[in-house]
Amino acid sequence: MRRVLLAVALLVLTACGAPAPAKQADGSPDLSGVTITAGQSNKLSNRTLLQAAGLDDTPYKINWVDFNATPDMLQAISAGAVDVGGNGGTTGAIQAHYAGVNVKVAAAAAGTGAGAQSSAIVVPKDSPVHSVADLRGKKIAMTFGAGVQYYSVLALKQFGLTTNDVQLVNLTTNAALAAFQSGQVDAWAIWDPVLATAQTQFGARSILDAGQITGLGAQYTFQFTSPAVLADQGKRAAVADFLHRVAQAQDWVNQHPDAWAKAGKSVSGLPDEAANLAAQRQAKKYVPIGPDVIAALQKEADEWVALGTYKEKSDVSTVFTTELNNQVVTS
């Protein structure tokens, strides 16, 4: 109850607004008195990114909060307990939209190059399965509601199959790994860094990665904020700077994958081989939120409706804000 009351109090204070920050000599806002709360749902997220790239020397204070999953973080942003957070995929934005969670996608990054290989359908190294077409009648482990379920449906369509031709098994990551190793499932749809661990430590063999799926297009990751933050001039300015730094840090990761692997190992405890492989597949670029980004999310949302996850189609464009485009995107 205390946490609920605190979240409500924070929401009320945020909704009331705050005076605009003072100007510095160069005309930029003085953010020295501003504090933002940043959430992250995994350790290889914004905090590690900024620290590794040497961009964590912000003129405002950041309070960091860790969450076990993206939906929990989005609920906290909606409640006003967190101001910004992300690195989550498109599926979380769709779930938030249908659940009525009051958040906005403020920045989007598109996977580039090897980044398209960061999700895949894998089989044991000695499996007779060499193509998605060979999965007819087989069991495929995945976490329902995660992006890999959407990718898998498109992959099946690409090879003339439907979900009725295979058995999709809903398992957590740890349970899926155990089932994969014991032979209880024939294939596994998974993403990095667990994918890299499965490939380097357990001999998993990819039969199709996300970059090979026809019609999937760019894979996006999102950064979220709330309407209340966008209405607060001080926090809005700080969040815009924060997200610009995240975009810059991602550019640094693209250019220094080995250094990023080292930074990632220090917080994740991944084996060297897995950390290095996952780092090579983290390439992405922040892009303006526009028609392409919105259309990709709408396409996925409509597919979830076809799967029966949601009852009817809905316009997901309302989850986006383009207000920070010019401040976030790097050249």
TrEMBL record:
It is found in: Periplasm. Residues 1-20 form the signal peptide. InterPro entries: ABC_SsuA_sub-bd (IPR010067), Solute-binding_3/MltF_N (IPR001638), SsuA/THI5 (IPR015168). GO terms for molecular function: ATPase-coupled transmembrane transporter activity. Keywords: Signal, Transport. One of its GO terms (cellular component) is membrane. It comes from the Bacteria. Gene3D superfamilies: Periplasmic binding protein-like II. PROSITE patterns: PROKAR_LIPOPROTEIN (PS51257). Residues 35-256 form the Solute-binding protein family 3/N-terminal domain. Part of a binding-protein-dependent transport system for aliphatic sulfonates. Putative binding protein. Belongs to the bacterial solute-binding protein SsuA/TauA family. NCBIfam families: SsuA_fam (TIGR01728). This is Putative aliphatic sulfonates-binding protein. It comes from Amycolatopsis acidicola.
